[in-house]
Amino acid sequence: MVASLPRLAVLDNLPITKKERETSKTIVSEFYEYLPYKHNRKKNVVNILQKRETGTSGVHYRNSSKLKQTYCYGKSQCFFSRSLSAASLGLQCGPPYIQCPALVIYIRKKISGFVLGNSSTILPTRALWLFGTLDGEIVVVNHETGNLVGYNSSIGMINSVLGLCWLKKYPSKLVAGFDNGCLKLFDVNHMPAKLGDRSCGSGAVHFEDFEQLTSVHVNSMDDQFLASGYSKGVALYDISTGKRLQVFTNMHREPINVAKFAHHSPCMFATSSFDKDVKMWDLREKPENPCYTASSSRGNVMVCFSPDDLYLLVSAIDNEVKQLLAVDGRLHTNFNITSTGSAHNYTRSYYMNGRDYIISGSCDEHAVRICCAQTGRRLRDVYIEGTESGKSIFVQSLRGDPFRPFNFSVLTSTMRPTAKQEIIKVNLLASSHDADESSRDQGIYPYCGL
């Protein structure tokens, strides 16, 4: 607070000394980012756009008073994109603890699974939220328009949807897993955009059941997927034939929470478990021994690969979040998020802006932490507010937007069992006025159809 408010003279009825100001600046520079991508001063968005238009980098050299002219090849485009993001965020820049404006979609049913639209190059503009409910419904919503895109509710079966995953090469298709072990392949194009229509379940492709299922994940080639659950092993399925190829047993000492394929290698996958271990596996080898094992001090809630597969992001109970080198499991970044002391504060973390930043939230807290993936320094703490006054909400799950920098979505929950759940869109680059106007322009209003 002292560093972010330079004109503050008195705090808690005590004058702020020069030494305290210097100490606060040191702490902030060590643990926090003032602006993204190591920018240490605010820049003008118009100037950056002009430099991008003319091809100037804006970099001064000691032996020349003129700007060196560079043209936008390769990394230059990335440079301008990051500079624009930093400048835009700088317009909203205040203390590193902010309460963000949000666009909200309300859901009456309890949501059990939540996935954003994939980043496939086939349909790069699709802005879809995919989620499942505890009543066995699968719902696809366009979060830019608020319109329902697809709906499925199986006849005569009320089982919670616990696993969801988009296919990458076929972005209209998805694999869903239910708590009774049922596994199905759906096509959104064959799902009616109408609530209550229960006639669409017959078009799904069925797979052999996997008991006590909690998670599914498709590989990079869209030819196989993994299923895991309340067991110490995983099952491998062939998508084209619908057959279960193999069951790998005793991979961990306790049940596996998540099994994730790499983004680019169809044979590599990682598993995480409450036994405190994260393990890397290779399908080309007999999965009797992992490629390596990395351990946390608490039980692991989840693991995921960075978009380029260079890193693993590991989230353990109560804000223990770290980044490992995917090649050998060595520690790369420890994010040093303060723990609460709760053994039931389940933490989930994902990448944002490619692999530049990570977002992390926990089920006993209403804050989303945004950290630089390379340095571990905190960029912002975003406190998610409910739309109803006095209502405490918590982070159940979250995802970064694969197309828009510094945009993410949060699935929230409350202590009241009858309360509606909210999926909240957060745009860190927009002001409160922009968010309100965008909400009205896009027609994103309370969605209470379920």
TrEMBL record:
It comes from the Eukaryota. WD repeats lie at residues 249-284. GO terms for cellular component: Cul4-RING E3 ubiquitin ligase complex. PROSITE patterns: WD_REPEATS_2. One of its GO terms (biological process) is cellular response to UV-B. The keyword Flavoprotein does not apply. PANTHER family: BNAC09G30780D PROTEIN, U2A'_PHOSPHOPROTEIN 32 FAMILY A C-TERMINAL DOMAIN-CONTAINING PROTEIN. This is Uncharacterized protein.
